[in-house]
Amino acid sequence: MAGILVWFWNERFWLPHNVTWADLKNTDESTFPQAEDLYLACPLAFCMFMIRLVFERFIARPCALGLKIQANGPQKAQHNAILEKVFTAITKHPDEKRLEGLSKQLDWDVRTIQRWFRQRRNQEKPSTLARFCESMWRFTFYLYIFTYGVRFLKKTPWLWNTRECWYNYPYQPLTVDLHYYYILELSFYLSLLFSQFTDIRRKDFLLMFLHHVATISLITFSYVNNMARVGTLVMCLHDAADVLLEAAKMANYSKCQRLCNVLFIMFALVFISSRLGVYPVWILNTTVFESWEIVGPYPSWWVFNTLLVLLQALHSFWSYLIVRTAYRAISRGKVSKDDRSDIESSSDEDEVLPPSQKHHTNGTNGAHGTNGYLSPSPCPDEH
Predict the structure, then answer these.
(1) Cβ distance 308 to 279 under 8 Å?
(2) Geometric angle at alpha carbon 147, from 142 and 149, rounded to 5°
(3) What are the distances in angstroms from CA 161 to CA 148, 164, 233, 240, 250?
(4) What angle do CA 303, 305, 307 make, to 5 degrees?
(5) Neighbour-count burial of 126, counting CB atoms closer than 10 A to its CB (0-12 exposed, 13-18 middle, 19+ buried)
(6) 95 in helix, strand or coil?
(7) 320-329, pLDDT tens digit by residue?
(8) pTM for the whole structure
């Protein structure tokens, strides 16, 4: 084990040429980032998760109820023992052959069985109230940490001149404020990484997982080899748009559509300008070009910049989703759906009526593609 640790913490990988870990040991005059400092983030991540549970139960939930947000989830599927057994024991997404077999067995048409499975899948999704509580927690944290980051950075020289991130590198002392900022951000993203498996599952689950892993890696790497100055710029820049996103979600869940539209447009402008404009011009410019000029490349420098470029690729993909959602919002007059949401919808009627009620409907079989079933307008998922 000792040999693995020595290999992993090889100073020729982590540090610039002619710099050793001994050079960065804490002294009476100066304090530098130490790898063991980050161990504190693990118990803090658990504490943050517990704080989140308390916050959602005693603060976010009463706020949601005060805004008349219902705790009811998606409409429940009609009970059917045969379909329930298939759903729980065999598959939640039956293929065409199985659908035809169930249709003959139950004397239901295939479209009705498809609707039943769609409703049954949606039945396991969280309610709007649960979504509101999750967004309110994230909004509160992002607002706090972004405010803290701005107040901290406006007193630092590297906010105004990014070359200050590399002067005298890596012999830049660690301040209490910078240490607090790093540990809090790392703890939060660790809590998100693990709670992602219990939170609302979305279509971009793997992308978000990759994002959290890349973010945690960046925070860890930049702290260990004392790239903390540029790390604070990256963190603060990313938190700015997240505040508006969670605010827009809360407005959407509260059915404050005009407020949601305004907040979403603000979010889209901030996100695209910061992630596709400021990030490459300000952040990548200093980590790639200014650091190369002042410090020079070394192995962990390449890893750090590779992760930053990976983050830029994710920014581009999410910007595409945001533009697509904004286009739909302008076309339809409202922001109606998050592209990442997994609540399924259909142009067909989602209310499943038993076959015995077919002849009590006002249409004929196949009319409007509903097989004679009553068909109110589908309500898009409000993420």
Answers:
(1) no
(2) 95
(3) 20, 6, 11, 20, 37
(4) 70
(5) middle
(6) coil
(7) 988 988 888 7
(8) 0.78
